Amino acid sequence: SKRASRKTKTKKIPNTKPNKKLNMPSPLNDEELHILDIINITANTVSIAGSLFIIFLYMYFTKIRNFAFKLVALLSLSDILFGVANLMRPSDEDGFVCVAQGFLKSFFGNLSIIMTSVIAWVCYASVVKKKKNVDSFHTQITILAMVLIYCLLLSLIPVFFDAYGYMDMGNGDDVWCWIKQNEEHRALGLALILGTFYLPLLVCISYNSYVYYRVSATFKRILESLKKNGPFNPNNLKQVDRLRYYPIILVVCFAPACANRLYISITENQVFWVWTLHLGLASLQGMFNAMVYGYNPTVRKELRERCGCIKKEEEIPVSRKPMGSIN
């Protein structure tokens, strides 16, 4: 009878109790948490690899080192650091590492997003407004300083409210840190999440969509003129069509994450398949950026030239492209 009582005392109870750290129901079991951990590690590793490839191309190929592709390289660098922040695994005993992870995720997450708007502005200023000093040293330093200050301010706001903390989604072993959404900070946490990340994200998506619509319309008018007055390359029209993918990346990557945050705040519940979309797509932003922004036709042409497998009819004219074009 004593052995039986000991067995009942030490028997592991399934993880169905409310999460003490979040003070909300957490239906995610150990197997689901393990799957989410694998998704987080895999997706961020793939994104880091893709972003490193773009930085390698920028360093290796001197022909593509214009101002626009320099911004793409900075975008890839921010994606790498965002992925590293996502891979951090703070322990329960070390609150400083948790706060550091939350801060770094906010800073480099916002930096990756705002860099897409900076690239959009460069294209708009060069193609639509026809500004000639966009790539001046003064402009580059000004843009970099404004972007870093912007991201720093957004990342420091949760620090002032002591809002960075653990997001324990189960048994307390698999923990990620960002802005807390527990019972005590639910309203504040939601306000900070929306105000310091998702609302700026929405502004960037709207701005990028408007800008690329204007840039695409301008390019199409130019191509129509070339089609009437001289030789016309159909591949140029395909390059213009690529512009629509730029704002779509942000929507695809962060729409599930935004929906998940709102769902957790409203229902106080967590759903496994929503978390898989949240972590997987948000962590793959770096890879998507590398594929669309970095691995563009100009880069592919340069790679084919180096390997000696380019065909003359596939060549893409680079000299006539505006400085702001990243295709």
Short description:
69% of the residues lie in helices and 3% in strands.
Task: Give a structural overview.
The chain is mainly alpha-helical and 327 residues long. The chain contains 11 helices and 2 strands. It has helices at 2-10, 30-60, 67-87, 95-128, 137-160, 186-229, 234-241, 245-267, 272-283, 285-294, 297-307; strands spanning 164-168, 175-179. A two-stranded antiparallel sheet has the order 1-2. Helix 6 (186-229) packs antiparallel against helix 7.
State mean pLDDT (0 to 100 scale): 80
Q: Give a short account of the largest sheet.
A: 2 strands, antiparallel
Distance between the termini: 76 Å
Fraction of residues in β-strands: under 5%
The helix content is 55-70%
Number of strands: 2
Structural class: mainly alpha
Strand order of the largest sheet: 1-2
Shape: elongated
Number of DSSP helical runs: 11
Radius of gyration from the CA trace? 23 Å
Low-confidence stretches: 1-25, 170-174, 312-324
Q: What is the string of helix and strand elements?
A: HHHHHEEHHHHHH
